[in-house]
């Protein structure tokens, strides 16, 4: 049996040992910087004091703290109710800065997306939390998967019906579309979102839900955006059943307008802090107005087979306004916002229950079920 007598490995530090040694050294460096500004040695640095020091020309704080960390400290000094910085929080900021430095392209992408949906006063903290907690795992796939599903259904009916134009195909006989004569098939109140009436319809819906939904999903998590999307879709179909009881319904406009309304409310509330706020408002209003105008035209002046209800736009938008406050995350949480959020949530639930009960019990209001199909 051969015995290796070469013990040089015992004198050469391993890669993990070097890494651990580096971490210990860096921790010592950051600890010394933190303690330099922790004047009373209680483990906390008042954010207001750091802000004052940073604004002083004679201060060395700009040399001690990394630029990205300073950005977040200044940001939190304006809204953090605690107004104190612990060493653990400081290390989290530094660690995220290192993650961003190692993945500059990903960090740049996150910053651009955060700029789309987050006001300035929350941006540095939002970027840090995303890099730290998510690292794109899971990636923002909900809106992409939903869009691909809708596109797949559209292509399927194009091939099946051998039609493709700005307003066609309209698969009236589909088991997915909302059919007023088959309201007892309750799944139609949601699955109608997969069916679209023509190329223009699906183009507008997919474009806006990707441009707006993906950034919202990255910042607020997929399940929050998904909840808002489906809540808007359900509100849209119920609104259509009440306002337009004998009209078919197709398209994801209810969910799309829920996202638009939630983002629009965020832009208005944080108007002074959002880049290109006026451009955002004008773009959203132009898109919404054009889309609703097209829906109104096809509803009242289009061919019989292409007439679908437009009420889902308004139902989805109302859902987005009522649920956006409580569904989407907000770093600056005020007591009045919590109360307002629950009040608006209660209104949404109340309207939802009313619409469902109306559909269940007031059946004479709706057209009789078509037994021939």
List the helices and strands and how they pair.
Blueprint (H helix, E strand, L loop, with lengths): L14 H23 L6 E3 H8 L6 H4 L2 H13 L4 E3 H16 L1 H14 L2 H14 L8 H20 L26 H4 L7 H22 L1 H22 L9 H17 L7 H24 L10 H17 L7 H27 L12
Antiparallel strand pairs: 1-2
Explain how this protein is built.
This protein has 373 residues and is an all-alpha fold. 66% of the residues lie in helices and 2% in strands. The longest helix is centred in the C-terminal third of the chain and has 27 residues. The N terminus is likely disordered.
Biggest sheet layout: 2 strands, antiparallel
In the predicted model, the low-confidence regions spanning at least 5 consecutive residues are: 1-13
Q: What number is the mean pLDDT?
A: 79
**Strand-and-helix sequence, N→C?**
HEHHHEHHHHHHHHHHH
Describe the global form: elongated
Give, in spatial order, the strands making up the sheet with the most strands. 1-2
> Quick one: how many beta strands?
2
Structural class: mainly alpha
Ends: how far apart?
A: 84 Å
Number of helices: 15
Strand content: under 5%
Q: Over all CA atoms, what is the radius of gyration? A: 27 Å
Name the helicity range: 55-70%
